[in-house]
Amino acid sequence: MAEQAKEDKKVQLSEGKITDEALEELRSRVGSKFRIDPFHTLVCRDTIRHFVDGVGDVNPLYRDAEYAAKTRYGKLVAPPSWLYSVFPTWVPQGLQGVHAFHSGNDWTFYKPLLEGDTITPELTFTHFDDKKSQFAGRIIIVYYDDNFFNQHGELVANAKAWSVRAERSAAQEKAKYGDIKLPHPWAEDELRDIEEQVLAAEMRGAEVRYWEDVSVGEELKPLVIGPLGVTDIIAWCIGSAPVKLKALGAALRDYRRHPAWAFRDPLTSAMEPNYAVHYSIDAAKQAGLPFPYDVGAQRNQWVIQHMTNWMGDEGWLKKCYAKYTKFVYLSDVLWLRGKVTKKFTDEDGEYCVEIETTTKNQRGEEVMPGRSTVVLPSREKKTWPVAARL
């Protein structure tokens, strides 16, 4: 009987409401700088390796000290997306029990992340919008402005971030995505073909890509991701989980202080964080989704990886904008594509390429439109990206 009772129980995430009182309290925080307790602060061999392992990036610039020493950087360097392992550019503040979905970033990168650097983050809550949606009715879109500084006080990057706050009960009731067949019913021959596409990813590396050799209309070779699995989420957590997943007594102490952060799993009786929506079917359903889904920062990182693969060691990713328009579920496959839309010289005299990026899943849905700006060396002018001149 006890076992049957346990089977009848369901995961129950805390249920919050978007009320005028809650919004007034949120409004009182606008303009505030929040204290950030980073996951990583030191750019070192271990934190770089854990991050690139966690995102599946095999670029030797980030892994091989001997290789990196022969590049313009002269030492190991972290990918620009490593900053997500400092903190994910947003915080789920206010509106207790109202679910938060990271929904996009607009990055500008100024300085490389070199082995030995120490990074300090700063976050400002700038504003929020009150909207209506088909997903959960009333939603709140919360906006942040983030700066990352190195040990010299230099600004290494800025990120504009936004997240959607939605009532879990409303999202469950509307069940907007309830008709999607999940997990995706892949055939074995389809999976073998996808795996070959994954392994065929381009990595420019030490072969310099010059600005003069790029043409408007040129298409980048796709970066293929997936099928996305539970271990991909676990690996992300190990290398870049600023949510600071904790275990046993350390976690329980947090949950006693913040009961809305966790739920009791009816199967194991263990306390689990709300972050489990990314790997627990029952938790995801409580957030109004039919299946566990990817982490927003994880997805944006794939765009950054696509750009750094294409530009090579001597290029510089200056800007990267990505907006998450649909959920990416476990078992999904993504095709990241890019097309050169513009070549220009910017206000700093740098030779730039603008790339329109798209990300589509196996259902043909656009899940992450965006655009990036890459600075390339000029063969004719004998110039190199300013940020990489060390």
Keywords:
two-stranded antiparallel ribbon; globular; 10-stranded antiparallel sheet; 390 residues; Thiol Ester Dehydrase, Chain A; alpha+beta; 24% helix
What does it look like?
- The structure is a single chain.
- With 390 residues, the chain is of the alpha+beta class.
- Helix content is 24%, strand content 26%.
- It has a single domain, classed as Thiol Ester Dehydrase, Chain A, CATH 3.10.129.10.
- It has helices spanning 2-8, 20-27, 45-55, 65-69, 168-174, 188-199, 230-240, 248-257, 281-286, 296-311, and strands spanning 33-34, 77-78, 99-109, 113-114, 120-133, 137-149, 155-166, 223-225, 262-264, 271-273, 316-323, 334-345, 351-361, 370-375.
- A hairpin with a 5-residue loop joins strand 6 and strand 7.
- Helix 3 packs antiparallel against helix 7 (230-240).
- It is globular.
- The chain starts with a helix and ends in a 15-residue tail after the last strand.
